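WARN  no MSA supplied for this record, continuing single-sequence
INFO  ligand: iron/sulfur cluster
INFO  echoing inputs
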Amino acid sequence: MFCYHCQEAKKNIACDTAGICGKKADVSSLHDLLTYTLKGLCFYAEKSTESRITDENIDKFIARALYSMVTNVNFDPAVFVQLIAETVQRREHLKRALIESGTVINGEEPVEAQWFYERIDQADFVKKGETVGIHADGELSGADVDLHAARELLIYAAKGLGALLENIQALGGFELEHYVFMHKAVAYTLQQERSLDELLAMNYRCGDQAILAMALLERINTEKFGQPAATAVHLDTWDKPGILVSGHDFQDLQDLLEQSAGSGIDIYTHGEMIAAHGYPAFKKYFNLVGNYGGAWQDQKTQFGKFQGPVLVTSNSLQQPKKGYTAKAYTSGMVGWPGVAHVEKRRIDKSKDFSKIIEQALQCEPPQALTEGSITVGYGRQALFELTDTIAAAIKSTAIKRIIVLIGCDGRHKERRYYTELVESLPADTLILTAGDTKYRFHQLDLGVINGIPRLLDAGQTQDFYAVMAFITHLQKTMQLGHINDLPISFNIAWYEQQTILMMLALFSLGVKNLRIGPTLPPFFTPEILQKLSDELAVKGIDTAENDVAAMLEGN
Ligand code: SF4
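INFO  complex generated
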């Protein structure tokens, strides 16, 4: 096993015996084989696009399969065995369609597009996976190390893009251009002749594509659920039994709210699902009463304390503790062996959450962990409405600097840096957030500037789009040439592959002085980091005090 997908990789090098996240070596090996076979499928998917053959089912399958391997999504080996077999079957289907269309492919096929299984068998697949993973051919040296890392970066970006597209698919959305790009990006890793600069350029293009995909997701979300508006979300509990919902899937939340309305059950959000409270469509459900607990890494204690069932609709899932396994449910691509999984949505039908509702009715009401509130809902429109006031405050120096603090929370104690950073920022700084890093500092009383709260939260990690759309709008309103001309600093707290994609989006926009923490990605080799530093002054974090001083100086 060698996995360095995420920020919690052992010693910031790689997990080599078992994952800190709970991923076992056999699942890691199955991930490696699924990635390998998906490269082969994407080779044919790219060829199919060139021959004007498209298949929406295959496109959606590829996005879903890539997403299944994002950190903390699915830990069930049986799921990956099926995905690997289906990848090979769909590849052969596409290959046949290409041959029938007269496309000549003989002699071009990479080995990744040629592998067949003798039988669908977990042990066989694990064994094969061990021969195709990272470093399966031994340690790399010289320039190969950088090329290999840049290809891995591209695969992680594709997994992040798969996550975004699966989120869009769950809401009924589909736009072909994103899938065409996704095939191209994955198939690009097969082109051994590509230079480091070419591979990095392709990674930046993933960042461009991510912005377009996030824009589509925002459009679908706002068409379905309305424009988010500033909303104080209560953190205490009510007196009825409850269900706790985490993840990002608003469609699951809406189905559950519909089915539980009037049943005497209250619904609480956890982690990034808190963003739902800002949308008008969810405000009409009186049984959506508040948020319970904090970021994803607190789930082991908080899910255990919550008296009712918990539903995890997307990443991030941790191994459920014995105390709450019997009342834990997963849906979508999320899964853990032995944990109840909600059947997938049939066409034009809702998912069936009746078992969870029945179980909740047998439970005691939850006891509050804390009190107070968190304000969410500064989506694109709400931020745009503040543009003139913020522009005027910048001109009058009432706002000296905007700090964009986006991304994920996590287990490392070094993440205390983000609390210290916000505590150390002077009162004339405005803070924009998206993602669950906000749980590190939402409890601080940060005050207002000219009537505007100093902390404006756009929502989930992918609502980073709203933040960037606002910043671009502010730049144009202030008639500046580039967003770097604003008094602005970017700081990204990365954890998994979606935040890698956000990072690439910032690179593609030419944002300078981006800080990445709490540790730099282990797949940023010294050569890659040097290039990023030379081009964009990308850097890791220092102490909160030093970073605040540097950011206020514009560095
Ligand atoms: Fe380790 Fe992260 Fe890979 Fe899990 S996803 S095995 S924690 S590097």
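The CA atoms of residues 235 and 372 lie 6 Å apart.
INFO  checksum written, moving to next record
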